From TrEMBL:
Xref: Gene3D superfamilies: Periplasmic binding protein-like II
Pfam family, one: SBP_bac_3
Domain Solute-binding protein family 3/N-terminal: 29-250
UniProt keywords, alphabetically: Signal
PANTHER family in the cross-refs: AMINO-ACID-BINDING PROTEIN YXEM-RELATED, MEMBRANE-BOUND LYTIC MUREIN TRANSGLYCOSYLASE F
Gene source species: Halorhabdus tiamatea SARL4B
N-terminal signal peptide: none
Name of this protein: Extracellular solute-binding protein, family 3
Length: 250
């Protein structure tokens, strides 16, 4: 199955799982969606979806004057289609503001900055210092992410071959396969890489300075984004944003 067909398949599964429990928001309610495999931004703990993005989105929706709907947890690649289908009203998923995505959805003002990290096993056996040293190695990333985009660039440049790329449904599985030796490196956002180094026997080999910014995603015809942006500005000014950073990132 090629990569696009794979994404469509997981997309279809994600959406049908969503429809069962989701009514779609009225104008007063904003139903947030995420892919809860990206600590410390969003992950599950004791069956609950938690993390920096979860706390931030709930605070922002509330300040903007709307009800927070029930969180929808689906594949990362299904988030934009589900938003545009009206199954969710807001994406809070560490999603990088990107030109291709901006053609499909709107983003709030940026709320986080991150680059990419190359994660390896902590045993010190393979310690690349640059992307050139990934040649002939098996490299993994989560489907549909900017980390995958970096690997696609390496394939295009001829540094690694298509068959060296392992695509994962989420980063938790990718990091597991890294620990097991099934891949030699994982390309993943820096703050999430750092989080995994604290819990698993993996280490950051080097960073790729992509200078990405995360935004909350909303439908292009949803005017409520103005209130969401006001609320983001407000929590930055009154110190709530810093409190959330201290709670989830330090
Ligand atoms: N920042 C990267 C992107 O936008 C990765 C985001 C992955 N997020 C997640 N919740 N799994 O492509």
């Amino acid at each position: 199955m090629d990569r696009r067909a794979y994404l469509q398949t997981v997309g279809a599964v994600g959406v049908s799982a969503t429809l069962a429990g989701c009514q779609g928001g009225s104008d007063d309610t904003i139903v947030p969606g995420t892919n809860a495999t990206f600590p410390p931004f969003e992950y599950t703990q004791d069956g609950e979806i938690v993390g920096f993005d979860v706390a931030l989105a709930e605070e922002v929706i509330d300040r903007a004057g709307y009800e927070v709907g029930e969180w929808v947890d689906i594949d990362f690649g299904s988030l934009i289609p589900s938003l545009n289908d009206g199954d969710i009203d807001l994406i809070a998923a560490g999603m990088t503001i990107e030109p291709g995505r901006k053609e499909q959805i709107d983003f709030s003002d940026p709320y986080w900055e991150a680059s990419q990290a190359v994660l390896v096993r902590a045993d010190g056996g393979f310690q690349p210092g640059s992307v050139d040293e990934l040649a002939d190695r098996r490299v993994g990333a989560q489907a549909g992410t900017t980390g995958e985009g970096q690997i696609e660039d390496l394939i295009e440049a001829g540094t690694i071959t298509e068959s060296d790329y392992r695509q994962y449904e989420n980063y938790t599985l990718a990091v597991q396969d890294l620990e097991n030796g099934n891949v030699d490196a994982v390309v993943i956002d820096v703050p999430v890489a750092q989080n995994f180094t604290a819990e698993r026997s993996v280490a950051v080999a080097f960073e790729i300075d992509t200078g990405e910014q995360y935004g909350l995603g909303m439908r292009q015809d949803d005017d409520r984004i103005a209130d969401i942006n006001d609320a983001i500005a407000e929590i930055r000014e009154d110190g709530t944003y810093d409190d959330l950073v201290a709670e989830w990132h330090e």
